[in-house]
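Dear colleague,

As promised, here are the two records you asked about, laid out in our usual form so they can be pasted straight into your sheet.

NAME FIELD: protein one
SEQUENCE, THEN STRUCTURE:
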Amino acid sequence: MSHPFASTLFRLRAVLAGPLMRGFGAYGGAELANRVVRVVTTVVIARQLAPEIVGEAALALTLFELVRVLNGIGVGQRIISASERELGAVCNTARRLYWIWALVLVAIQWTVAVVLAFGLGAAAPAAMLALLALVYPVMPAGLVQCHLAMREGRNAAMARTVASQAIADHVLTALLLLAWPSPWSVVLPKLLTAPIWLVMTRRNRPWRPDPHAGIACWRGMVRFGGGVLLAEGLTALRQQGDNLVIVATMGSSALGTYYFAYNAGLGIVTSLVGAFGTVSFPMLCAAPAGLPRRAMLRSIVIGGAALFVPLVAVQALLAPLYVPIVFGAHWAFAAPLIAIMCLAGLAQLASVLTANWLRAEGRVGSDAGRSLLGLTLALGGLAIGARTGSLTLAVIGLVSGTVLAAAISAAITLAPALRRTVPAMELPA
């Protein structure tokens, strides 16, 4: 009988050489390229625009991102998890739902723009927000193809698509700013590069509606999507709510330091964890329910731990060295905050894996409960720490709440599934 440690090494080697890591390599490389170009664009924005002009664009883009959260209605996850027998009908129904929902989002965003213009007197951001609503009608023509490509593991093609659009967005922003220093130069590329995503997505995985496949039960898809949407909405509220807690309890100066520490400590890890979740979810759905899916979950957990535990540890331990070099000596004081913030990266990984497992099993209500728990404990811990007046204690409270929520969810959801997986592969003596 093999030694347990040898079995673990055998499984780890298989995971690192398998499709999970190849897919993650494609998405992860695309995310890193996107981040590099984004940094360059940020420097151009800082040098070309005055703070008050940047604020106009930031307000429009923030509201756009908040409304765009509603775009994640969960129908795509239903395409990925559908059986081959029902796939055609699910795709036909999803296409109709996507078009209906796109028009609803346009109406919602235009309503917000009207309130912004006439209720708050912010005419310029309102006009930008109204124009950005035109992004939504571009997407339905490619969303079914996008999720079919994810279902079939076409990760390299999808990664190229995402990276191409993002990099084109950043480059076009920089060029427009150099020629026309205006907040519109920051906003317009979001709309102008949307067709890049559409064209590349439709080429990655061609698809046409099949009238012979019929229509799936739209009520079931809406119920499934509603649970996913609720979970995503709570996650977005968690991501935006921490800034509101800091500025309300400690002021705008503390918010600037917190915002920097959060992005420096979790920016890259958050992108990579998201890429890992995007690649692993279709693999979970493709595995048959029961022991095979639990075995796939175990492989994904092993692969995620092998990647992110060393990455987070190195990032946290070396923060005092790289922060003043990369970001400047005036940010050296924030190195301890960044090191503490890094520890939330592993909690994010656990949360993404838990969410993927629940959605693959069709338990979207439990996924929404998981998001609510994370929102409550993370912002609760942040608020308790912030009331002391110490930004360090506020960050410790946020990270502690995030880790506790992820640990509770993983203990309730992932641990039982991992315990009931297939036994470790036996190796010859």
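NAME FIELD: protein two
SEQUENCE, THEN STRUCTURE:
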Amino acid sequence: MDHDVLLPGETLGLMGGGQLGRMFAQAAATMGYHVAVLEPGATSPAGEVALRQIAARYDDAEGLRTLAQTVRAVTTEFENVPAASLRALADAGLRTTPSADAVAATQNRNVEKAFIERAGVPVAPHARVASEADVAALPAELFPGILKTASLGYDGKG
């Protein structure tokens, strides 16, 4: 038997319990899978429809251990799940998709854009800004522009 195949009836792990996670859990259920959600709050949209919700921070060692003992594979509901937590789950023998390295690259927009550019994929005009001097040195063609955080921003926040 191929140990990489996850058959219906198995439980999938989900880091994050928001609306996208809820849709993931519902879709998984229609295919015969169960879902265990790791989410800091006691209740969550995904947790309401999942087989189990583990109420723990994304970097809580006991919560991660419980998740690892419950599932064979883990995914993320949003991009700001700690990459180190995904790495720990992978080290515990779980399939993690996306990988910790992929998540780490997407958690900093400067790193992410550099990675994409190195792959030869065009990105929107941008510049790294770390100080007021950086703003003063920006080329005129970047204006008008939007200043965003490099990390922990999402859906227009930050």
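A couple of things worth noting about protein two: The chain has a mean pLDDT of 91. Strands lie at 11-15, 34-39, 52-55, 73-76, 95-96.

Best,
R.
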